[in-house]
Amino acid sequence: MTQTSEDVTWLTQEAYTKLKEELAYLSGPAREEVTAKIAAAREEGDLRENGGYHAAKEEQGKQELRIRQLTQLLEKAKVGETPASADGAVAPGMVVTIAFDGDEDDTTTFLLASREYASADIETYSPQSPLGSGVIGHKVGEDAEYELPNGRKASVTILKAEPYNG
C-alpha cells in the first residue's frame, strides 16, 4: 500500500518520541489507574447515583479515544525532514506565507502540519482545516480559495512555501 503525502504525518524525532511516550503511558500506567478508580467507585454501591464512577468511566472513554488517535497518527508518521515538494506546490510539512485577498500588507505565515508537529515558534494549520486544504497543491504566486465557517469564500495568494526545518 502506498501513502500519498496527504496520508503521511511528518514528525520530528523529538515529536515522534514524545508521542510514543504518551502512548506508552496511556496504554500502561494511566489505563491501570483509571481501571482502579472504576473498581473503587463500583465498590461504593449504587452506580446510578455514583458521580465518581461516572467521572471515571468518562475519563476512561477520553483516554481510550486518545490512545486510538495516537496509534493511528504514529502508524502514518514519517520521522525526519519533510521532502521538498517536487513541483514547488504547497504540501503538508511546509511553512507557507499567504496574503489575504491579495493584500501583501495583510499576511500570515504558518506551518501546514498536524498539531502534533506544532512548534511554539510558529502557528500551525492542519492540512484538513479549511485554509490548509485550500492552499494544498497551489504554487507560489497562485491564488487559492477556501470556505469560511459562515459559508462565504475567502481568497489568499501564496507568497512563499518552503520545507519546515523545525
Defining traits:
22% strand; 4 helices; two-stranded parallel ribbon; 166 residues; alpha/beta; five-stranded mixed beta sheet
Task: Give the helices and strands, then pairings.
Blueprint: E1 9-11, H1 13-27, H2 29-42, H3 51-76, E2 77-79, E3 94-100, E4 107-112, E5 124-125, H4 130-135, E6 143-147, E7 153-163
Parallel strand pairs: 1-2, 4-5
Antiparallel strand pairs: 3-4, 3-7, 6-7
Helix pairs in contact: 1-2, 1-3, 2-3
**Count of helical regions:** 4
User: Which runs of at least 5 residues are low in confidence (pLDDT < 50)?
Assistant: none
Q: Report the biggest beta sheet as strand number plus sense, adding barrel if it closes.
A: 5 strands, mixed
Q: Name the helicity range.
A: 25-40%
Task: Give the DSSP E fraction (strand runs of 2 or more residues).
Answer: 15-25%
Task: Report the span from N to C terminus.
Answer: 29 Å
Form type: elongated
Series of H and E elements = EHHHEEEEHEE
Question: If you had to describe this structure to a student in words, what would you say it looks like?
Answer:
With 166 residues, the protein is of the alpha/beta class. It contains four helices and seven strands, in the order βαααββββαββ. Strands 5-4-3-7-6 form a five-stranded mixed sheet. Strands 1-2 form a two-stranded parallel sheet. The chain is elongated, with a radius of gyration of 21 Å.
